[in-house]
Specification:
Layout lengths: L10 H18 L10 H10 L9 H6 L22 H33 L10 E5 L17 E10 L4 E4 L10 E3 L3 E3 L20
Antiparallel strand pairs: 1-2, 1-5, 2-3, 3-4
Helix pairs in contact: 1-2
Length: about 210
């Protein structure tokens, strides 16, 4: 379950939907309205392909073996397949799960290291003044305009829910949730007359 106004927490589902969308785009061709008839084929292809993070295909992790695909139905013998006993099957499945878990942990460490390069840690206390970025989904349809200022403020921090979520005091005319992710907040460092203030930053050499 993802929180309101923060769909990034549902990233695994979004990545899967993107992968299935790419597969369907290749399958439907010019017959876009017939996408529903290709769902089974897209699902089989997605579960049959090797996952980069797991190191195995979803079929291999869940069922312990990869089902035959159309290429396996040819007359070429497949010497890589064999049928062992139940104990060998269970041992092989446990080994696959162990290796898949290790691969996922290694992938998580790698992705975290890349994400931490751009991550900035901000901590606010109740009473602090901040700038708030209003996204399109926060505003009524008729009030949104691309040329309007994206930041409002300064507004006061009312509560720190956790390190990633804060409750702020929004103006009365804004009928939206007053809980924001820290990525949409930035510290208020004084009036905008200061040319080097946070809301009006200048790069070196600019005027």
């Amino acid at each position: 379950m993802s929180t309101a106004y923060h769909p990034q927490t549902d990233g695994q589902t979004e990545v899967t939907n993107r992968a299935l969308g790419n597969i369907l785009r290749c399958l439907v061709g010019d017959h876009i309205k017939g996408w529903d008839s290709k769902l089974c084929q897209a699902e089989f292809a997605h579960n049959h392909a090797m996952n980069r993070s797991l190191g195995f295909s979803p079929f291999r992790v869940v069922y312990g073996q990869v089902p035959r695909c159309p290429l396996d139905l040819t007359t070429i013998p497949d010497k890589s397949r064999f049928h062992g006993g139940a104990l060998e099957f269970v041992d092989d499945l446990l080994q696959v799960h162990s290796q898949a878990k290790a691969n996922l942990e290694a992938s998580s460490v790698k992705y975290k290291a890349v994400a931490d390069v751009k991550r900035r840690e901000l901590l606010f206390e109740p009473g602090d003044l901040v700038w708030v970025v209003l996204t399109k989904d926060r505003l009524p349809l008729r009030e949104y305009n691309k040329l309007k200022s994206r930041k409002i403020g300064p507004v006061e921090v009312l509560e720190r829910i956790n390190a990633n979520a804060y409750r702020v005091q929004l103006p009365d005319h804004l009928k939206t949730s007053n809980v924001f992710n820290v990525k949409y907040l930035s510290p208020f460092r004084g009036d905008n007359d200061d040319p080097d203030s946070w809301p009006n930053p200048l790069s070196p050499g600019e005027t």
